[in-house]
Amino acid sequence: MSRNVPDALSVSAFDYPLPQHLIAQRPLADRAASRLLVLSRATGAIEHRRFRDFPTLLAPGEVLVVNASRVIPARLIGRRSNGRLAEILLVHPEPDGSWLAMVHPGGKLKTGRTVAFGEDTVAEVAEVVGGGVRRVRFSGRLDVQGVMARYGAVPLPPYIARPADEQDRDRYQTVYAREDGSVAAPTAGLHFTAGLLAEIQRRGVIVAEIVLHVGPGTFKPVEVEDPAQHVMHPEWYQIPGPTADAVNRARREGQRVWAVGTTVVRTLETAAAAGPAVTAGAGWTDLFIRPGFRFSVVDALLTNFHLPRSTLLMLVAAFAGYQRTMAAYREAIAREYRLYSYGDAMLVV
Prior knowledge:
Blueprint: E1 35-39, E2 46-50, E3 63-67, E4 69-71, E5 75-80, E6 85-93, E7 99-104, E8 114-117, E9 121-130, E10 133-140, H1 144-151, E11 152-153, H2 166-171, E12 179-182, H3 194-202, E13 206-212, E14 235-239, H4 241-253, E15 257-260, H5 262-271, E16 281-285, E17 300-304, H6 311-320, H7 322-334, E18 345-348
Parallel strand pairs: 1-18, 3-13, 3-15, 4-12, 15-17
Antiparallel strand pairs: 1-2, 5-6, 5-8, 5-11, 6-7, 7-10, 8-9, 9-10, 13-14, 14-16, 17-18
Helix pairs in contact: 6-7
């Protein structure tokens, strides 16, 4: 770490004791039954509520922005030519039909090596890209969509200590997911039901969509002490014209813009980086939001609880303030909130 990095901005400052029994291994039977910790961005005051109360916190004319990306069954288990198992985690399709992917065991899957999936399809490593990433090409009776449908599994986070099952294909998706592409769920949205969204709209709130395809970098630990030296994994996003219009109109009229998840925050703030207005369109973002960042779009953030030393926790601390964020985490752990993807929610407002 550079000697010039203040302690509050070092990666170690975002560590906290993690009780393993609080890591949610399964979703609740009712999405909206999650607990909701509400943190005041202005005062640091904390309230404890239930997620089904969330619609009552919004006002007519405000804009709630959600990420409509859908998780794909990107984790593929096949066999190498010697019969031993290998894993391919698909990350992103390339224009030439190949895929960027992370593989295991990485040392064995060099250029030209293959992984077979049943009698249907073979994936060949076409290129070692670097950083643990390979370019792979599929050949055989099934295309990539067919391979995922038959052999793929939802890539649950590594802290969920069980294999993915059929329940996860439904519950590790938001109810509004529509655009395939993520390898991890935008988990803040997992708490919504169709009924809650309808209630929010009945209250005169505009529900708008963006798409950001979450990549494996969301699980990448920060391995340097100075956050400025951490390299973010680029992720593809798209902002439709109606969403940009709704957000910009809200900003002009003094209405709040609510972001459902860190992915929405990064997308909107990326799109506003060149000026005061959010611009519609598509692109890639590697925006790393950490304390010191100046927000220009988002007024309220709904999120889940995040791993120690993670870029996601740093984003929340940038938005709510470092001291208030860490105090809220201590409170959540003391009250035994369920943590992470299938856990409870936190609202900074």
